[in-house]
Amino acid sequence: MLRQFPSDYLPFRVINNYGPTECTVVATSGPVPHDVCTNSRPTIGRPIANTQVYILDEDMQPVPDHAAGEIYVGGAGVARGYLNRPELTQERFVKDPFSKDPCARLYRTGDLARWRLDGNIEFLGRIDHQVKVRGFRIELGEIEAVLAEHSVVRQAVVLAREDTPGDKRLVAYIVPADVAGATAETLRVVLRERLPDYMLPSAYVMLEHLPLTPNGKIDRRALLALAPVVTREPRLYCAPRDHLEQTLCRLWEEVLGIARIGIDDDFFELGGHSLLAASLFSRLDQALGRALPLATLFEAPYVAGAIHVALSVQKRNQGQKKNKGKTVLIFDEQEAFEGRVEDLIGEPPDFTNTFYGRGYRHKWANNRGVLVACA
Q1: Cα angle vertex 100, ends 99, 102, to 5°?
Q2: In this predicted model, which residue has the larger pLDDT, 342 or 50?
Q3: Given the DSSP bridges, would you call strands 136-139 and 130-133 parallel, antiparallel or unpaired?
Q4: What is the mean pLDDT of residues 181-189?
Q5: Does 141 map to a domain?
Q6: What are phi and psi for residue 320, nearest 5 degrees?
Q7: Which domain holds residue 308?
Q8: CATH number at residue 39
């Protein structure tokens, strides 16, 4: 895959061709401009004459522009199939749903790509680099493409690692073009602007170069064979200041499998995700003897912040009044609440008795204007 634009000093034009052997080698072609000012990688051009190229989803439906899908190739160059391999032929050479010719077929390349707005095709990688992490199907090539567009990145490869059984995480391996600028935080911000949270790598590993196979392709197995990745980056360590912070830091360390976590370390930046968050809060319930809402971690994903939010919730709950009927009122909202209820039921509410017990549950419980919460 062509990863860089040619220099202005070359005395010839560069043409980038793409095509599998099953489609007579060349299916798309396009000139590569010299040293253009863009962070994107060169495209593979457009379909050549007598060739049709489709980028389709799992249901063989066309994907929108700039969305990733599998390349299907049709036309005069498509082979008949594999010699003495009928099952593989049936799998890879499929009926062309877009052709009026009943005998027309498409070849499923297994390559991942997307249409650019200018009509060219951007090659992203192999479809077999698609992984499933925490229930989400992820195209690793999509993440790599966004990383490669940044000026501080020369090369990028993203893999799914499972260093701890049952805990699969995305790891980005980066060959930086600018060592000082290619920090994990910088890249994380770039990806967060373009991709959903479940596609964000848990760790970023900086390398001088990527390992290659004998035929010059990136050796992903060699990357996986590297030592387990520590998701934590060097940062100022803020030690816990009291017993509560010590307890939370210890639980953070147990769930994430990382030693020496400080009170300002971000749970999600250290590789945490929703499933680990649920495990963490289950342990918190046992250790603290009270349940905290899971949303606490998303509001403040670090120990000091989580404690602050939890204490705020506790203080707010202490400002509630419970009567025998299990009706809960917030003190500073009670006056407005009582006025609203009086308007609805036609009489002043008596909260010394059970409000719901007086027959109003069915009639008013679902009215959004009534600020009633049941303990």
Answers
A1: 90
A2: 50
A3: antiparallel
A4: 84
A5: yes
A6: -100, 150
A7: 243-318
A8: 2.30.38.10
